[in-house]
Amino acid sequence: MFDLSGRTALVTGARTGIGRGIAAALAEAGADLVLHGHHDDLDDVEAEVRATGRRSRRWVLDLSDPSRVADAAASLPPIDILVNNAGIIRRGLALSQTPGDWNDVLAVNLDSVYFLTRAVGAGMVARGSGKVIMIASMLSFQGGLNVAGYTASKHAVTGLTRALANEWAPHGIQVNAIAPGYIATSNTDALRSDDEREAEIRARIPAGRWGRPEDLAGAAVFLASPASDYVNGHILAVDGGWLAR
């Protein structure tokens, strides 16, 4: 039920953190991988995938230019599992952020996600099967502090997840999202280096600790596998209990 043998998964932002953890988990479950990176610095994650005996290839693309995504996707092999993980964040007060900050975040976190999913999803629709996994956030549900663009993008990702689930369910495709809690990655370095803010966040997490990329492995394999064939348009929080507090 959780076997991914014979399937090919594309994971964006696969070099480190959540993307690398999910790529490794899908490989362990039997999938071959297409590893996306902004730069061609994917040696470590590629070695991790190949150590499982699975095949991998690299797909290097700057997602900050969404107009290039569809054309670049034409070079990809048929994709059975798409994980839209790549994302950026710009921290700062809304009144002090530039239009460039806003546009950069929305271009990567929303626009490129839409155009890549549409490009890859066309093949899934034609074949009558596929799995799309969006990476949402706790800020898909809440407002956060000093991250207006990021929050807006992650709220939009949940809406896009549900909209595409409605459109593509009749074609045998499931579109779902994982909403990670506070995970120890480079995106949260600023929070974890602020002793006061770090303590506030950790105190609210019932599990009593920050998450690790490997904490998302089971959710990713579930949503990529036949086990989730009747799950569609769902936002799965993996948050140590954050939303329950």
How would you sum up this structure, described in words?
- The longest helix has 29 residues, at 99-127.
- Strand 1 (8-11), helix 1 (17-28) and strand 2 form a beta-alpha-beta unit.
- Strands 3-2-1-4-5-6-7 form a 7-stranded parallel β-sheet, sandwiched between helices.
- Helix content is 40%, strand content 15%.
- The chain has helices at residues 17-28, 43-50, 69-73, 99-127, 148-168, 189-192, 195-204, 217-224; strands at 8-11, 32-37, 56-60, 81-84, 130-135, 173-180, 235-238.
- The chain contains 8 helices and 7 strands.
- The model has no long low-confidence stretch (mean pLDDT 96).
- With 245 residues, the protein is α/β, with parallel strands linked by helices.
- It has one domain (8-238): Rossmann fold, CATH 3.40.50.720.
